[in-house]
Known about the structure:
By secondary structure, this protein is mostly helical. The protein is 65% helix and 7% strand.
Amino acid sequence: MDIKQLTKKCSKCGEIKFLSEFYVDKRAKSRRQPSCKKCAIKWQCKNKEKILNYAKKYREENKEHIKRCREANKEKSKEYQKRYYEKNRERKLEQHKKYNRQHKDEISKYLKQWYDDNREKRLEQHKKYNELHRNEINARLRERCETDLKYKLNKNISRMINFSLKGNKNGQHWEDLVGYTSGIFMAGLYGGQAGSRPYNPNISLGF
């Protein structure tokens, strides 16, 4: 095959490069964009705001068309997104972590506002989920109680105090009500530092 069929001249830098160094453009005769990837990325970085504004304007002016296209290609789009994510999983996760670090305050503020605005909806969803997965949830809780002493203490003491107050605990943690922590309780239980001994499931907690 002629080397000319495998190469193309970049319209920006003027260098002759392999076709693999150009983005695909199905509308073009050569099936490649006129500028190479390197030049295209430089242009995108330089004109980031311009590109975002154009994309926003296009979405606003073509809402119905975009909606019809999405509906018509729903399965195809879903499959493409799945393949893309699997191929770029590590890079996407790193981008996501970086974005979360840079926008931590804005995300926290948004989530808090969303939770406040959708409180009833969340409670209903939570209730429905618990009803549908009751057996699995109970199995996980039982397993955790058998392996996590601190969790078992928290659950049992919290339940007892709530019962003693006739349901008027009002969501307060039992440590705030009694004035000491589970760490102090565990230290007294073992007669030493909290966590100084491994959990023994045969130890009676007295309740």
